[in-house]
Write a structure and sequence with these properties.
By secondary structure, this protein is low in regular secondary structure. The protein has one helix and six strands; from the N terminus they run ββββββα.
Length: 161
């Protein structure tokens, strides 16, 4: 296990690397590549991951505490049952990702690309979902707050008074 605190990485390629069980606190990874990297049981605490690519990375058992994951590519990743409360995912690419039963309360998913994502049973209460295409992903059994339920209904053409 390794621990990094307040390190900055810009456009570094970590693709196919074995980074399991690492702990990173307050680190910045700008436009870094983690494609197919092994991040099994890694912990990211208040890290800034803006513009990084995690396509097909092994994120099993990952811990993400707060942080900014805006503009990241998280295509095809497994984040089911993860505690992602309060994490910023502004315009993140979550295409075909698995977020079943994830805790996304108070997360910022503004304009996130969620096509084919699975959010069955996810908790989205308090999450910002502005600009999200509700028709492109599965939220069966997800927990929504009143404002989100209204936005969902409007996306399907309902008129809400």
């Amino acid at each position: 296990m390794y621990l990094y605190t307040d390190q900055t990485y810009n456009e570094v390629d970590f693709s196919h690397k074995d980074l399991r069980e690492g702990e990173l606190r307050g680190c910045t990874f700008t436009k870094c590549r983690f494609q197919s990297a092994n991040l099994f049981v890694a912990k990211f605490q208040e890290c800034k991951m803006v513009g990084s690519d995690f396509t097909e990375a092994n994120l099993d058992g990952i811990t993400i505490l707060q942080g900014d994951w805006s503009y990241t590519s998280l295509r095809l990743v497994q984040l089911s049952k993860q505690q992602l409360r309060g994490v910023r995912f502004v315009e993140a690419d979550l295409y075909d990702s698995k977020l079943d039963k994830a805790d996304l309360r108070d997360a910022d998913l503004t304009r996130a690309h969620l096509a084919k994502a699975r959010l069955q049973g996810a908790d989205l209460r308090g999450a910002v979902l502005d600009g999200v295409d509700f028709k492109s992903f599965d939220i069966k059994g997800a927990r929504l707050d009143t404002a989100q339920a209204i936005a969902f209904a409007r996306s399907y053409g309902a008129k809400v008074d």
